[in-house]
Amino acid sequence: MTVPTITLNDGNQIPQLGFGVYLVEPDQAERIVSDALEIGYRHIDTAKLYENEDGVGRAVAKSGIPREDIWITTKLWNDDQGKDKAPAAFERSLDKLGLDYVDLYLIHWPKPGQGTFVETWQVFEEIKASGRAKSIGVSNFQPHHLEELFRHSETVPSINQIELHPRLIQQENRDFARRHGIAIESWGPLGQGKYPLLDLPEITSAAEAHGVTPAQVVIRWHLQHGLIVFPKTNSAERAKTNFDVFGFELTDAEMAAIDGLDDGTRGGPDPDTF
Ligand code: NAD
């Protein structure tokens, strides 16, 4: 199965479907990521916060898959922002992963009250120039945080990774990103199991029509919107079906019905106050 790629504003190509490892226990990460690589995933989304970078790294090393064929994203945690702490935090992430470079490094949250994301971005520009992060981006940034970044830097983030699912379709943030050439990644793409997204009739009826599961419908909805998506599961069975989403296509009417579920529900924190 060849997963489509999205070409970023720096020319790099990211697999549009990947595997997320938030809340994957550190001692389970190696096994779960090994299973994902075996299934065919070639894009893993981790973070310093998840405390499983070393398990991810071991799975990559043991897989025998050429390094250049796997996309690895990690993220800088909030209390490591700033020009004094960020360089060492990046080194620690690389060490834990056992890698010479990551494909994507993200500022995990803007933390506007901290006032450090601009100088952190300057560190990210240096890391990218060194070749040890092939692409750099942000996460949980609202358009006004990005505008603040633009006032101080000419490097436009390649990615903004935001909470995005049928209850929170983030139209304004997506439109802003499109205008500025920023690709959007959807975190919590299945709603994190926090509300009964997968039981909603707009989703179950599409699943029945195509003979697939509700989760496959929702993943397909992300892909058809051009979003980058990496659902998480500890189950190899679910990982397999979540990856099997290229044999059907949602109709325009099904896409529109799912778009209509948007009610602005956030499962996660508000980026302005968190
Ligand atoms: P998700 O929406 O991927 O949901 C995961 C939940 O869905 C799990 O409880 C899992 O058991 C369930 N699930 C998975 N496959 C299923 C299936 N086929 N059928 C039924 N249920 C299924 O939530 P997430 O893990 O929070 O988000 C995905 C990834 O996004 C994370 O693993 C992480 O990499 C990233 N993330 C980033 C941030 C951020 O602030 N940047 C925040 C949260 C998550």
From TrEMBL:
PROSITE patterns: ALDOKETO_REDUCTASE_1, ALDOKETO_REDUCTASE_2. Signal peptide: none annotated. Keywords: NADP, Oxidoreductase. The keyword Transcription regulation does not apply. Residues 24-262 form the NADP-dependent oxidoreductase domain. Belongs to the aldo/keto reductase family. PANTHER family: 2,5-DIKETO-D-GLUCONIC ACID REDUCTASE, NADP-DEPENDENT OXIDOREDUCTASE DOMAIN-CONTAINING PROTEIN. This is Aldo/keto reductase.
